[in-house]
Amino acid sequence: MAACPSKRRLYISDWDNDLLHAVALETTHDDDDNDDDDPPAEDSRWAVANQPAGLSLAQANVLVACHGAGKIQEWSPEGTLIRQIQLADECRLVWHCIQLNGDELAISHEGSQHRVVVVSADDGQPVCN
Prior knowledge:
Layout: E1 2-4, E2 9-14, E3 19-24, E4 44-47, E5 52-58, E6 61-66, E7 71-75, E8 81-86, E9 93-101, E10 104-110, E11 115-120
Antiparallel strand pairs: 1-2, 2-3, 3-4, 5-6, 6-7, 7-8, 9-10, 10-11
């Protein structure tokens, strides 16, 4: 799960059905700090690549670690697929990812080596430091 306070949404990965659920969070009437006059978004679900596992936020976008597909998908809060990053073969069984900067992601994966590795957001290849 991941929550985005600015968009007032909770994101939940659904491994068995290959879905990402986006649930609108209600706000209280006492929430005077919120200058956003937009109503909360409706609940929705988006078909994602095989076996979505860990979720994280990259600004307001959602990063989905797709374990079965060996991909990282980036989704807008409105449910538009922004990009897919195919991971290198040795990193395919991905569990979680976070964006370090615009060009790099830290991912955890299993395989012949269970590890955390930094990969390029451009091509999914491990970055050698």
